[in-house]
């Protein structure tokens, strides 16, 4: 008799065999659950890109300092709106690592315009070009000889514009302006092109023009077809005109794409990262109005998170290759005046959800000991928020140290380093304190856009002077019918090749954030965004918060120059570490094979380059014949 048969015979004589089986299954399930809740059977995701040492990453302004200017930017600050536009273009050119020289004809005088022979591009930031006088003729002669000129602001119609209109691709121009209600970039111009993107608060901002047949329209309005960005060959050179008339931060990617049309080829560093934040996660089950959850699911808030919301997020993570970055809240109390802070006693939620997030290859960061923003006496919330301010520096630092210690205790393999300010609020004093007194925090992920108040901590992508990585979040929530966020998303794909998104578990408790519509509608909007992102940028790396920070460090530090010959483009990278990513537009010639890196076609003449060496050589086919 075999051993197996012997066991079966013995079991058959046991009158409680059925009950024994039930107990065995129950014990096994309990063991699995205990292991999960204990948070011991996970290993932190293997990060594909590590952060550089703080002294190896430099701010972009330091990286370009001393670089030879290749572009001349001419402004006239006496004209309305020019100074604000100049501020936007300074940041665009800084991030593109295009060193430039500035001349303001209002303060420097028009005769301060230098010889153009040492420049590759001239960018005019002024609606009226009349103030250039005879220098305009010199500029156009330089363009015809091989230079590149960009009119970055919607031009005023005048005799000067009419005189050079044919060289700008303009057949005729009116004196009236049309409403730019949307923008449709051509499919071969930008990532996400071929689609209509609505503009917020449209107005009569674009000059009514009729273009010559030889002009190439790169973007137009969706309703009337008014040209918004176009280029025209001018002798051996090229002109580019931006006729959008809207210059706020959300439009930067469109202007960067327009700048890249100048010259035989343009290369500029990008980040190449998509990050998905879960704010207030893990945390104690938040309080709030569960009316709509009860309406749709008949569940309590806690059961909804465990049985519906989190399983759905796990499915989305698997479908779209997402590795979430959760940022923890230890409690929702409002204690702000103590240095000895109470430890959260109930760790079940943290171990269970945090353990599973890490098991999925995600990452955990910090959101706060409680949900009180890091702000001292100098911050006034007015009637906007019911927040308190911290008593002093010591209580503020103690709150962060307690949260860090708590995370290390309940999820010892998390190793958090990213801080997300509650409600994106972080005062200037508190920001300085973090850099000086909380070395564990290496990244701050707040917001990219202003909200009309002075409360948000608004960021640019880069490395701060104290070494902390600035990683603003761009879009949020389900984005249902939110045309502004979709516009921001496509703009930043083309400016920095980045997408940073965040959502809250308690969005479904707040009617202002989607509770009334319900989770299925909210999830549908999120899925639609993920579908669009995947289709528009299939090569975009999906990373965690700290991985994105590593990418930002490399982006911030690297510089690039392009040398052009008849048969190759040579990209020379400064401050190169182990890798760098660049957008590359070939305006004259077709790229072939690359050495020192890899090149991938995106759309039209636009390519993505991964540099693995400080020198990348790209074969140039059919070049030099314009």
Q: How would you describe the overall organization of this protein?
A:
Helices cover 30% and strands 23% of the residues. The protein starts with a helix and ends in a 5-residue tail after the last strand. The strands form six sheets. The protein has a nine-stranded mixed sheet, sandwiched between helices. Strands 15-14-13-21-20 form a five-stranded parallel sheet. A hairpin with a 3-residue loop joins strand 22 and strand 23. The N terminus is likely disordered. It has 626 residues and is an alpha/beta fold. The protein has 15 helices and 28 strands.
Outline of the structure:
By secondary structure, this protein is an alpha/beta fold.
Topology, number of strands: 28
| SS-based class | alpha/beta
Helix segment count? 15
Helix content: 25-40%
Q: Detail the poorly predicted runs.
A: 1-46
User: Compute the gyration radius: what is it?
Assistant: 28 Å
Q: What percent of residues are in strands?
A: 15-25%
End-to-end gap: 90 Å
- What is the global morphology? globular
- Main sheet specs: 9 strands, mixed
Strand order in the largest sheet: 2-1-3-4-11-10-9-6-7
The average pLDDT score comes to 92
């Amino acid at each position: 008799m075999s051993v197996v048969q012997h066991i079966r015979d013995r079991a058959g004589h046991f009158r409680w065999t059925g009950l024994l089986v039930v107990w065995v299954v129950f014990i096994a399930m309990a063991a699995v659950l205990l292991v999960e809740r204990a948070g011991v059977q996970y290993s932190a995701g293997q990060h594909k890109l590590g952060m550089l040492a703080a002294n190896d990453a430099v701010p972009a302004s330091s990286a370009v300092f001393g670089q030879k200017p290749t572009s001349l930017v001419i402004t006239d600050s006496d004209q309305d709106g020019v100074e604000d536009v100049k501020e936007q273009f300074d940041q665009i050119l800084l991030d593109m690592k295009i060193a430039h020289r500035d001349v303001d004809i209002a303060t420097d005088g028009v005769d301060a315009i230098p010889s153009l022979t040492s420049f590759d591009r001239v960018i005019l930031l002024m609606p009226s070009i009349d103030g250039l006088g005879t220098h305009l003729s010199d500029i156009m002669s330089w363009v015809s000889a091989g230079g590149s000129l960009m009119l970055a602001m919607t031009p005023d119609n005048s005799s000067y514009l009419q005189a050079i209109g044919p060289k700008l691709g303009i057949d005729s121009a009116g004196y009236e302006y049309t409403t730019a209600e949307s923008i449709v970039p051509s499919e071969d111009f930008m990532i996400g092109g071929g689609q209509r993107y609505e503009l917020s608060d449209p107005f009569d901002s674009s000059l009514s023009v009729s273009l010559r047949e030889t002009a190439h329209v790169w973007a137009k309005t969706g309703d009337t077809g008014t040209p918004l960005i176009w280029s025209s060959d001018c002798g051996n050179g090229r002109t580019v005109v931006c006729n959008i008339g809207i210059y706020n931060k959300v439009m930067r990617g469109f202007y960067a794409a327009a700048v890249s049309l100048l010259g035989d080829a343009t290369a500029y560093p990008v980040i190449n990262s998509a990050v998905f934040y879960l704010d207030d996660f893990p945390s104690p089950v938040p309080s709030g109005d569960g009316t709509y959850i009860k309406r749709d699911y008949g569940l309590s808030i806690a059961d909804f998170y465990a049985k519906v919301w989190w399983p759905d997020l796990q499915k989305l993570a698997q479908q779209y290759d997402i590795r979430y970055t959760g940022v923890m809240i230890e409690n929702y109390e409002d204690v702000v005046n103590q240095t000895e802070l109470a430890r959260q006693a109930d760790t079940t939620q943290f171990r269970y959800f945090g353990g599973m997030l890490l098991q999925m290859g995600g990452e955990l960061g910090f959101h706060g000991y409680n949900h009180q923003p890091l702000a001292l006496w100098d911050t006034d919330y007015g009637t906007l928020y019911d927040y308190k301010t911290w008593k002093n520096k010591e209580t503020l630092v103690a709150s962060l140290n307690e949260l860090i210690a708590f995370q290390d205790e309940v999820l010892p393999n998390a190793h958090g380093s990213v801080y997300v300010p509650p409600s994106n609020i972080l005062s200037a004093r508190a920001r300085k304190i973090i850099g000086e007194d909380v070395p564990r925090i290496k990244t701050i992920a707040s917001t990219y856009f202003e909200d009309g108040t002075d409360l948000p901590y608004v960021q640019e992508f880069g490395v701060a002077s104290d070494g902390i990585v600035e990683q603003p979040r761009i879009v949020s929530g389900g984005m249902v019918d939110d045309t502004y966020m979709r516009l921001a998303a496509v703009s930043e794909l083309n400016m920095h090749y980045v997408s940073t998104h965040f959502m809250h578990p308690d969005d479904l408790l707040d009617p202002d954030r989607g509770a009334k519509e319900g989770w299925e509608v909210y999830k549908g909007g999120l899925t639609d965004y993920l579908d669009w992102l995947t289709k528009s940028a299939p090569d975009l790396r999906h990373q965690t918060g700290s991985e994105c920070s590593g990418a930002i460090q490399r982006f911030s530090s690297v510089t690039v120059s392009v040398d052009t010959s008849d048969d190759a483009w040579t990209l020379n990278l400064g401050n190169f570490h182990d890798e760098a990513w660049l957008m590359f537009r070939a305006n004259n010639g077709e790229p072939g094979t690359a050495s020192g890196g890899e090149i991938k076609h995106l759309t039209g003449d636009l390519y993505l380059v991964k540099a693995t060496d400080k020198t990348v050589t790209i074969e140039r086919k059919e070049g030099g014949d314009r």
